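User: Cyclopropane-fatty-acyl-phospholipid synthase. Structure?
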Amino acid sequence: MKSPSLSVKTNRLNVNGMTSALLRKAVLRQLSQLRHGQLVVIEDGERQVFGAREAHLLGEIQILDSAVWGLVAANGSIGAGEAFIHGYWSSPDLTAVVRVMVSNLDVLDAMEGGLARLARPFTQGLHWLNRNTRKGSQKNIAAHYDLGNDLFEEFLDPTMMYSAAQFLTTDDTLEQAQLNKLERICQKLALKPTDHLLEIGTGWGSMALYAAQHYGCKVTTTTLSKEQFAYTEKRIEALGLKDQVTLLLQDYRDLTGQYDKLVSIEMIEAVGHRFLPTYFKQCAHLLKSDGLMLLQAITIREQRFEQAKHSVDFIQRYIFPGGALPCVQNMLQIVSRDTDMNLLHMEDFGLHYARTLRLWHENFRRAHGRLAELGYDEYFLRLWEFYLCYCEGGFMERTIGTAQLLLAKPSAINPPLLGRFSA
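Assistant: Predicted structure:
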């Protein structure tokens, strides 16, 4: 297997003779503005401490190559990620470093300005090319989800759920927490055997299979990933559910029919801001007049939404091309403006995602040797380590969250939210 080509050359700023020492000084000057948490920077035996003298949140960076300063100065947080991928710096606790920076958003924003602002047209141009038209969506989904099922099997739990789990007790394993999530979704939708459930975003099939097996309903599920399609097709056949579960390789915009219930788990991040009205209109159109929709979404804090909407971060640049995080307020505005659905219930469990990511990261690190044997090189492994820790830090500091929204069509009867009961 050929790992993705990772190059920072196209992003490297021509500094016209500015020395590494000057760039280092500029970056350290910005770090001197840290007020929350503490960050220790170690380079050539020299130890510098930034932030609060007494802090519970401690991060440590070890500089291994002075090239890190030019990348951070030129490309901000994207440059920091690129430098990590290339082994220019390391940390004994990468998530803690991310948390310190995220808890000082004013400093992080300043690092995205200055020289880094000059690289913005390049990254925004790449992101525009990755917009989620029908053709663009196929390409963007393939870029992440078609990396290879063997990759995801190495760090996901046996359910193969690639979304936030819900931990009901401190003893819950990752697998149990994912099953908790699936059960809670089914209960919120008040699924019953006579229902026809539509799923937008199949993943590796666990939601569709769980609903069919445990609630006896008919399920139609669609994906754009050829790898996920092939994997799920085998699971359906192995469980003898071909007559109950219909698997499609189709864009959500091309779906037809009428369904009793609709579920979409962390697929909306691949829709893009421009197409959110289209997405919600289509979901409402596909539901019967008494239908229910359960949406699980990674969300960004409302106060950061507009800024994030017009910028590109490390995840969009290297992990999820075309990706965009909505905020709850914006989604509800679109739902009320463009559909006949209304909100019945909402909950945020972002800290559960932080724990999910931590467990994925632990599995991923344990699988390094196996992944190397499968052909994933060191650049790719460091890229994914940065990705997992970057996300965990964001959820820990609540800059991003995970929301489940239960939406109802006009004639829907309010279902019991936390379990089944008899009227």
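Confidence is low (pLDDT under 50) at residues 1-18, 115-130. The chain is about 45% helix and 15% strand.
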